[in-house]
Hints:
The complex is a heterodimer of chains A (328) and B (378).
Chain A: H1 2-28, H2 34-44, H3 51-61, H4 67-79, E1 85-86, E2 91-92, H5 93-128, H6 133-147, H7 150-165, H8 184-221, H9 224-231, H10 236-242, H11 244-274, H12 279-288, H13 292-320, H14 322-327
Antiparallel strand pairs in A: 1-2
Chain B: H1 2-8, H2 20-24, H3 27-36, H4 39-56, H5 58-61, E1 82-85, E2 88-101, E3 108-119, E4 121-131, E5 135-143, H6 161-197, H7 199-214, H8 217-226, H9 234-249, H10 251-264, H11 268-275, H12 280-288, H13 293-317, H14 328-334, H15 338-343, H16 349-371
Amino acid sequence: MLLFILRRILLMIPTLFAITIISFIIIEAPPGDFMDAYVARITAQQQTIDSSEVEALRARYGLGQPGYVRYLRWMGSILQGDLGRSMEWNQPVGRLIANRLPWTLAISLVSLVLVYAVSIPIGLYSATNQYSAWDYVFSTIGFIGLAVPNFLLALIILWLYFVATGDVAVGLFSDEYQLAPWSFGRVIDLLQHIWLPAVIVGMAGTAGLIRVVRANLLDELRKSYVMVARAKGLSESKVLYKYPLRTAMNPVASTIGWALPGLVNGELLTSLVLGLPTIAPLFVGALMSQDMFLAGSIVLILSALTLIGTLISDILLAWLDPRIREAI
Amino acid sequence: MIADEQMLRPQAQPGVPGNKKFLVASQWQLIRWKFMRHRVALICLVVLIIFYLWAIFAEFFTPYAAGSYDVDYVLAPPQRIHFWDQGELQRPFVYGMTSELNPSTFRTTYTVDETQKYPIQFFVQGEPYKLWGLFEGDRHLYGVEGSKVFLFGADDRGRDVLSRVIHGSRISLSIGLVGIAISALIGIIAGGVSGYFGGITDVIIQRVIEFIRSIPTLPLWMALSVALPPTWTVVQAYFGIVMILSLVGWTGLARVVRGKFLSLREEDFVMAAKLNGATESTIIFKHLLPLFSSHIIASLTLSVPGMILGETALSFIGLGLQPPAVSWGVLLKDSQQIRVLAEAPWLLIPGIFVIVAILCFNFVGDGVRDAADPYASV
């Protein structure tokens, strides 16, 4: 098991490396370098800027040098924990991201839990009561859930919320807890608010996972060992929970890997529409104002976190299924 | 006697074994028969064909151009089509609207004026247009004379939402097709090379695919679309967005193609072709690809929704296509201001079209996938 984990981590290193390259390309992609943007901003404020000062700054950031040198410098500072400075906010990128990342993670995690908590029982019911009325109801909801983009769902819910309450944004806290220090009451208040974005984010994932659970369980239930178990007089619930469900869970656990990128995408869009203080508005703002250090760092961190999530799901899968441990 | 024979062979219809036609039908014939038996997929295919016809002949099917506005009808609500007037059945007509400015909120309120009646005219002369920039015309499928007709309401500049939805479907629906065409090219080449040659090439391509699939695509799309020069025209930006979407979208197909190649390259007929001196490209493109082209079509159909959603999401955020380009995402962007939306919920109508299009592509894709292997279990 330890060997398996070690191997997985080693395999992740080239991927992380590729992600840093992509993030760096994103930082460098817009026409002109960020000093041009900086100079443009200063001159837009009708201040003059000394050209020798610009040159000094250019030299400091290594802007005149070839791409790989800039990449290595950038990587070096990242390894020291310095993600660069945001031009727009005039703050270290690391601090900006650290302020907002917890909310993104919280929404994604709650929605991941919701996806599994909702879809496994429903999939179980649909598979054991195939072609029943509720099975059709759940299948229909599933198809619609897959087809409704979550930003549209968020928009519709926000609209209903506005019509009902007159508020333009669904916050993460009630007014009295907005700035309060952490307390038990504040956590409860957060949970009372966070379920809504989490449900919206998890909608498509839940719909997809219900189908996976249902299909896998149906496959298992058709196998002859189930018939043998029944013939031997095992109670129906024992037959179901002890063997087929256990086997059908393996593909379900492996879906965490592909569910995570989808969750991150959904979280971005949903937070944007609902106006939540997560990383999404920061990211879009950074892209709009070409604050590329911030934007590139956010891509880097979101991708790296997704990879780590996938790694955890792989380890979970290996723990569930010994065959996988042996295979790699 | 005839009744007896039908009882003995209850499945005596085309597309079912036991029928003589079934035995001599070509593979595509079998696939078509099997697909036709999937009712929902068939209905969805018809819906999609209607959508695409709308998109192709948008100028004709809409009463107004996408950019045509009328300040007298800012946020005018959808009009209802009436058939009955004073208890008599008549040709369809709409009532006129009178607008009134509310002095305290500066909002225009519209009331239905039952004294004005405008019958809906078909093949009516209206705004002149140039179909595909080539053919001039001024006939529209429907319209009213002497007033304006807003079946889906009007937006905040008094533009007809229905006209804009149909004009917008041009970009939204075509981006899916162009996108999968590019993804198909990349996917088939990458998957084919990977599956046919195997070895180190296979490992590298599989790593790249795994990498692309393991990172969240939306931040990447967003960041890349910012890199598109702002000076680009609508057409250039369109192809830029398609390229960005396809760069990520080809992986699913590459996996399908690779899997098929892996299972088929050991077949005897490949060996026979090799012994006959066929080149590798002949084997790949002449013998192997046609064999599973139905699977490719299924996989492609199922990846169209992702493309449509990608464009819609990007434009919705404001990082994709920009006005004056009209796509469903651009239209939905207008509905983001929640106060406007509360007054004019019909601005969400483009969203219904997005949902229906995606739903239909999913069902048609499922149908094709089930039909792709007509010998499986008929």
